[in-house]
Specification:
With 197 residues, this protein is of the alpha+beta class. The chain has one domain (2-120, 127-156): Gcn5-related N-acetyltransferase (GNAT) (Aminopeptidase), CATH 3.40.630. It is 41% helix and 22% strand. A 7-stranded mixed sheet has the order 1-2-3-4-5-7-6, with helices on both faces. It is globular, with a radius of gyration of 16 Å. The two termini are 30 Å apart. 35% of the residues are buried.
Length: 197
Protein backbone atom coordinates (compact mmCIF):
# COMPACT_ATOMS: atom_id res chain seq x y z
CA UNK A 1 0.00 0.00 0.00
CA UNK A 2 1.12 3.53 -0.72
CA UNK A 3 -0.06 7.01 0.25
CA UNK A 4 -0.36 9.60 -2.48
CA UNK A 5 -2.08 12.88 -3.18
CA UNK A 6 -5.69 12.88 -4.34
CA UNK A 7 -6.09 12.90 -8.11
CA UNK A 8 -9.09 13.68 -10.33
CA UNK A 9 -10.77 10.34 -10.93
CA UNK A 10 -10.56 9.29 -7.26
CA UNK A 11 -13.93 10.87 -6.41
CA UNK A 12 -16.07 7.75 -6.84
CA UNK A 13 -13.75 5.68 -4.63
CA UNK A 14 -13.69 8.36 -1.93
CA UNK A 15 -17.50 8.58 -1.97
CA UNK A 16 -17.72 4.79 -1.72
CA UNK A 17 -15.39 4.67 1.29
CA UNK A 18 -17.32 7.49 2.92
CA UNK A 19 -20.48 5.35 2.64
CA UNK A 20 -18.78 2.10 3.69
CA UNK A 21 -17.50 3.73 6.88
CA UNK A 22 -20.47 6.06 7.45
CA UNK A 23 -22.17 4.33 10.39
CA UNK A 24 -19.76 5.27 13.19
CA UNK A 25 -16.98 3.54 11.28
CA UNK A 26 -19.13 0.66 10.04
CA UNK A 27 -20.72 0.10 6.63
CA UNK A 28 -23.71 2.41 6.06
CA UNK A 29 -24.60 1.11 2.59
CA UNK A 30 -27.82 -0.51 3.80
CA UNK A 31 -28.98 2.72 5.48
CA UNK A 32 -29.14 4.93 2.38
CA UNK A 33 -31.25 4.70 -0.74
CA UNK A 34 -29.05 7.38 -2.35
CA UNK A 35 -25.44 6.17 -2.01
CA UNK A 36 -24.02 9.62 -2.84
CA UNK A 37 -25.61 11.60 -0.01
CA UNK A 38 -22.95 10.95 2.64
CA UNK A 39 -20.22 11.77 0.15
CA UNK A 40 -21.92 15.00 -0.86
CA UNK A 41 -21.87 16.17 2.76
CA UNK A 42 -18.59 14.79 4.11
CA UNK A 43 -16.24 14.34 1.14
CA UNK A 44 -17.24 16.15 -2.04
CA UNK A 45 -16.70 19.73 -0.92
CA UNK A 46 -13.14 18.96 0.19
CA UNK A 47 -12.28 17.29 -3.10
CA UNK A 48 -13.68 20.27 -5.01
CA UNK A 49 -12.51 23.17 -2.81
CA UNK A 50 -9.35 21.88 -1.03
CA UNK A 51 -7.89 19.12 -3.25
CA UNK A 52 -4.34 19.99 -2.23
CA UNK A 53 -5.11 18.84 1.31
CA UNK A 54 -6.54 15.45 0.26
CA UNK A 55 -4.52 12.22 0.27
CA UNK A 56 -5.45 8.58 -0.31
CA UNK A 57 -4.18 5.12 0.56
CA UNK A 58 -3.86 2.99 -2.56
CA UNK A 59 -3.07 -0.65 -3.25
CA UNK A 60 -2.79 -2.04 -6.78
CA UNK A 61 -4.70 0.93 -8.14
CA UNK A 62 -7.54 0.65 -5.61
CA UNK A 63 -8.21 3.50 -3.18
CA UNK A 64 -8.78 2.07 0.32
CA UNK A 65 -8.77 5.15 2.54
CA UNK A 66 -8.41 8.91 2.57
CA UNK A 67 -7.85 12.05 4.58
CA UNK A 68 -9.46 15.36 3.65
CA UNK A 69 -8.51 18.69 5.15
CA UNK A 70 -9.56 22.32 5.10
CA UNK A 71 -6.87 24.72 6.35
CA UNK A 72 -9.29 27.60 6.94
CA UNK A 73 -12.61 26.32 8.29
CA UNK A 74 -14.46 29.63 8.06
CA UNK A 75 -13.23 30.27 4.54
CA UNK A 76 -14.18 26.72 3.57
CA UNK A 77 -17.68 27.12 5.01
CA UNK A 78 -18.15 30.38 3.09
CA UNK A 79 -17.04 28.79 -0.18
CA UNK A 80 -19.39 25.85 0.42
CA UNK A 81 -22.28 28.31 0.77
CA UNK A 82 -21.29 29.99 -2.49
CA UNK A 83 -20.19 27.04 -4.61
CA UNK A 84 -21.04 23.62 -3.17
CA UNK A 85 -24.43 23.68 -1.43
CA UNK A 86 -26.54 25.68 -3.98
CA UNK A 87 -26.63 23.02 -6.74
CA UNK A 88 -27.25 20.28 -4.17
CA UNK A 89 -30.10 22.29 -2.67
CA UNK A 90 -31.68 22.43 -6.11
CA UNK A 91 -31.21 18.68 -6.55
CA UNK A 92 -32.47 17.57 -3.13
CA UNK A 93 -35.65 18.81 -1.41
CA UNK A 94 -35.51 20.12 2.15
CA UNK A 95 -37.41 17.56 4.24
CA UNK A 96 -39.95 19.05 6.63
CA UNK A 97 -39.40 16.44 9.33
CA UNK A 98 -36.27 14.43 8.55
CA UNK A 99 -36.41 10.86 9.83
CA UNK A 100 -34.50 8.53 7.50
CA UNK A 101 -30.73 8.79 7.02
CA UNK A 102 -31.33 10.13 3.50
CA UNK A 103 -33.64 12.83 4.84
CA UNK A 104 -31.19 13.74 7.61
CA UNK A 105 -28.41 14.31 5.07
CA UNK A 106 -30.72 16.29 2.81
CA UNK A 107 -31.62 18.43 5.81
CA UNK A 108 -27.89 18.97 6.49
CA UNK A 109 -27.41 20.16 2.91
CA UNK A 110 -30.07 22.83 3.44
CA UNK A 111 -29.17 23.69 7.04
CA UNK A 112 -25.42 23.36 7.37
CA UNK A 113 -24.19 24.04 10.93
CA UNK A 114 -20.83 25.82 11.15
CA UNK A 115 -18.25 24.66 13.62
CA UNK A 116 -18.37 26.42 17.02
CA UNK A 117 -16.54 29.75 17.18
CA UNK A 118 -14.65 28.76 20.31
CA UNK A 119 -13.27 25.71 18.51
CA UNK A 120 -12.31 27.43 15.28
CA UNK A 121 -10.54 30.30 17.04
CA UNK A 122 -7.90 27.98 18.48
CA UNK A 123 -8.06 25.16 15.93
CA UNK A 124 -8.90 26.83 12.59
CA UNK A 125 -8.28 23.81 10.36
CA UNK A 126 -10.34 20.62 10.26
CA UNK A 127 -10.31 17.19 8.66
CA UNK A 128 -12.10 13.95 7.86
CA UNK A 129 -10.34 10.59 7.69
CA UNK A 130 -11.78 7.21 6.74
CA UNK A 131 -10.12 3.85 6.14
CA UNK A 132 -11.68 0.59 5.02
CA UNK A 133 -11.27 -2.24 7.57
CA UNK A 134 -8.48 -4.02 5.67
CA UNK A 135 -6.39 -0.84 5.91
CA UNK A 136 -6.97 -0.22 9.62
CA UNK A 137 -4.48 -1.09 12.34
CA UNK A 138 -1.52 -0.98 9.96
CA UNK A 139 -0.24 2.54 10.57
CA UNK A 140 -1.83 4.18 7.55
CA UNK A 141 -4.15 6.36 9.60
CA UNK A 142 -1.20 7.79 11.52
CA UNK A 143 0.74 8.34 8.31
CA UNK A 144 -2.20 10.16 6.72
CA UNK A 145 -2.55 12.35 9.81
CA UNK A 146 1.18 13.14 9.85
CA UNK A 147 1.06 14.06 6.16
CA UNK A 148 -1.88 16.42 6.66
CA UNK A 149 -0.35 17.96 9.78
CA UNK A 150 2.77 18.82 7.78
CA UNK A 151 0.66 20.34 5.00
CA UNK A 152 -1.35 22.42 7.47
CA UNK A 153 1.80 23.64 9.26
CA UNK A 154 3.29 24.73 5.94
CA UNK A 155 0.03 26.57 5.26
CA UNK A 156 0.47 28.44 8.55
CA UNK A 157 -2.28 26.75 10.57
CA UNK A 158 -1.84 26.80 14.36
CA UNK A 159 -4.27 23.97 15.05
CA UNK A 160 -6.74 21.42 13.71
CA UNK A 161 -10.02 19.98 14.90
CA UNK A 162 -12.51 17.28 13.98
CA UNK A 163 -15.88 16.04 15.12
CA UNK A 164 -16.60 12.41 15.93
CA UNK A 165 -19.76 10.60 16.91
CA UNK A 166 -19.91 9.63 20.60
CA UNK A 167 -20.88 6.16 19.39
CA UNK A 168 -17.56 5.75 17.58
CA UNK A 169 -15.39 4.98 20.60
CA UNK A 170 -12.77 3.28 18.46
CA UNK A 171 -12.21 6.48 16.50
CA UNK A 172 -11.99 8.52 19.71
CA UNK A 173 -9.28 6.16 20.97
CA UNK A 174 -7.41 6.46 17.67
CA UNK A 175 -7.43 10.25 17.79
CA UNK A 176 -6.40 10.31 21.44
CA UNK A 177 -3.45 8.03 20.61
CA UNK A 178 -2.42 10.56 17.98
CA UNK A 179 -2.41 13.39 20.50
CA UNK A 180 -5.81 15.01 19.98
CA UNK A 181 -7.78 15.97 23.06
CA UNK A 182 -11.49 16.48 23.66
CA UNK A 183 -12.36 20.17 23.57
CA UNK A 184 -16.12 19.89 24.05
CA UNK A 185 -18.90 17.36 23.58
CA UNK A 186 -22.63 16.85 23.67
CA UNK A 187 -24.99 14.01 22.80
CA UNK A 188 -24.37 14.49 19.06
CA UNK A 189 -20.65 15.15 18.64
CA UNK A 190 -17.30 15.05 20.39
CA UNK A 191 -15.10 17.92 19.22
CA UNK A 192 -11.39 17.12 19.40
CA UNK A 193 -8.44 19.41 18.70
CA UNK A 194 -4.67 19.57 18.43
CA UNK A 195 -2.23 22.47 18.41
CA UNK A 196 0.21 22.40 15.50
CA UNK A 197 2.71 24.97 16.76
Amino acid sequence: MTIREFRPGDEAAVYDICLRTGASGEDATHLYSDPELLGHVFAGPYLRLCPGFASVVEEDGEVLGYILGAPDTRGFEARCEEEWWPPLRERYPDPVSPKTPDEQRMHAIHHFHPAPDSLVEEYPSHLHIDLLPRTQGRGYGRRLMDRLRDQLRRAGSPGLHLGVSPANRRAVGFYEALGLTTVSEDEHVIWMGERLG
